[in-house]
Amino acid sequence: MIDLKSIPSAKEDLDRYEVENNFHSWSFQPAVSPPRVVSAKGVRFTTEDGRERLDFSSCFVSHNIGHQDERVVDAICEQAKTLTSFAPSLSNKPRAILAKMLAEVTPGDLERSFITLGGAEANEAAVKIAHQYTGRRKVVTRYRTYHGGTASAMSLSAGDSRGWAQVLGGTEIVTVPQPYCYRCSFGQTYPSCELQCVKYIDEAIDLEGGADKVAAIIFEPVTGANGIIVPPKEYFPMLREVCDKHDVLMIADEVMTGFGRTGKWFAMDHWNVVPDIMTMAKGMTCGYLPMGATVVRKQIGDRFKEQFFAHGATYAGHALGCATANALIPIYQEDNLIEKSEKLGQYLLDKAQELKEKHPCVGDVRGLGLFVGIELVKNKATKEPLTPTNAKVMPGMNPKLEIAKKLGELGMMAMAANPVNVIALAPPLIISKDEIDEGVAIMDEALKVGDRFTA
After folding, report:
1. Which of 74, 91, 101, 228 is the most buried (most CB within 10 A)?
2. DSSP 3-state assignment of 293?
3. Distance between CA 268 and CA 55 in Å, rounded?
4. Chain centre to alpha carbon of residue 109
5. What is the DSSP string of 67-119?
């Protein structure tokens, strides 16, 4: 055994460890190490070769306030001097303050939180709470969605090829279509469709046993990794009516969309609809430390004063993570980042629309706030996707990944390796108009690669 305090760390050593000793997420394991990040600041990061690059994905929609904000780093260091963590059966000041802060920023009467270490864990907790509160087992989910890589969360990620290898578990699933107007599952056109996608959910809940069998429906308000799908304005008000009719809970997965990403504190605020349970993570601590939360409405939280809460975690309410969130969340207010996301999001959407006009491979552009999707096609007239559904999990040529590689060569990272034919543009909320122009210009060049694969 080598001296564990003196593990060799030359470049060639680190490259070898990456290939031989580390699992890389959602991918065929690489034969060579990916570029190594050595530092990051604001909207940019620097790799080991000394090259500075533009982060146009906020590290997969997490670093909303950008990298290495000194206010947050200082708060982490200060908290670490006194208490990093303790058993969750006892209280700590950061946890108590964060629970109250989340009650203040979330909509309506969402007020009691289970604070955990990430989005998947938050969604696991949400499903357990729904089961325990209603006494029912079925949960409705939507195709083309992603709720996390753990058992229930991945099972609920219907239509995401990354979950095909998993044995389903954790809940009984009912799957329904998205409000995907560009590719309507019912072959209709909005608004003449009269929201057939919601009517279908109403019927599906009834056929699956209604209030006797169905506990909840879980959804991303704006679908993230599977397409940046923005629903029609009537969708969530109508869905709220359906859920109330059947006494079914609404679980809003705001892991990506929360904390200003869409131009509101939370995406559900756009439609003035209060879900029964809301989950969050990424923008809560912006990746400075792992953290997530499941927040429930008052009547749900109050139930567990008399009913045993059958869930927990060793690091629930982790003091250092909570202190990070407590320092970070007020920055959204102090720096007007939510208003900035709304304003610059419209600018980014307009610039992306210009790309649609220029490139044969761009079939649709859509978004809300600084959360914009570019859908890739082989043929604009037929809407034939640029890559098949299984492209993510099958070896061989993947045109979208070729675009991602070109982006890397040009010095930018966007969310281009997600499962479907959509490249997500989700820069940090601190981005400037000039930096948006820079990113769009790089994307313009990279999309020429996609154009080569069109009909």
Report:
1. 228
2. strand
3. 26
4. 23
5. B--HHHHHHHHHHHTT-S---TTS--HHHHHHHHHHHHHSSTTEEEEEEESSH
| The amino acid at 96 | A
Alpha-carbon gap, residue 102 to 114, rounded angstroms: 11
Nearest to 329 by CA among 18, 31, 104: 104
Residues 6+ apart with CB under 8 A from 263: 270, 338, 339, 341, 342, 343, 345, 368, 369, 370
Distances (CA, A) of 395 to 90, 258, 361: 49, 34, 22
Three-class SS of 119-172: HHHHHHHHHHHHHHHHCCCEEEEECCCCCCCCHHHHHCCCCCHHHCCCCCCCCE
Q: How far is CA 430 from the centre of its chain?
A: 18
Q: Rounded to the nearest 5°, which phi and psi values hold at 53?
A: -130, 160
**Dist CA 354 CA 369 (whole Å):** 17
Q: What are the tens digits of pLDDT across the range 319-334?
A: 999 999 999 999 999 9
C-alpha 17/C-alpha 5 separation (Å) is 16
| Residue-range domains of the chain with CATH | 35-65+336-451 (3.90.1150.10), 71-334 (3.40.640.10)
Parallel, antiparallel or unpaired: strands 277-280 and 110-116 = unpaired
What is the DSSP track for 374-412?
EEEEEETTTTEESS-GGGGTS-S--HHHHHHHHHHHHTE
> What is the predicted pLDDT for the residue at 443?
98
Q: Round to whole Å and give the CA distance between 360 and 378.
A: 8
Cα–Cα distance, 402 to 411 (Å, whole number): 14
**Sign of torsion over alpha carbons 36, 259, 274, 311:** positive
Q: How far apart are CA 455 and CA 447, in angstroms?
A: 15
Residue 418 has pLDDT above 80, yes or no: no
Cα–Cα dist 63/445, whole Å: 25
Strands 362-367 and 372-379: antiparallel
- Contact between 426 and 57 under an 8 Å Cβ cutoff? The reply is yes
Nearest to 119 by CA among 96, 143, 144, 153: 153
Q: For residues 377 and 336, give the distance between their C-alpha atoms in angstroms, rounded to a whole number.
A: 36
H or E stretch covering 37: strand 37-41
- Region of residue 162 (left: phi > 0; alpha: psi -120 to 50; beta: else): alpha
pLDDT tens digits for range 233-283: 999 999 999 999 999 999 999 999 999 999 999 999 999 999 999 999 999
Which single residue is written with the structure tokens 């982490």?
Answer: 76
Q: What number of other Cβ atoms are within 10 A of residue 100's Cβ?
A: 12
Q: Could you give the C-alpha distances from 48 to 26, 40, 390, 414, in angstroms and in order?
A: 23, 11, 33, 19
CB 367 within 8 A of CB 349: yes
Cis peptide bond N-terminal to 191, omega within 30? yes
The enclosing H or E element of 365 equals: strand 362-367
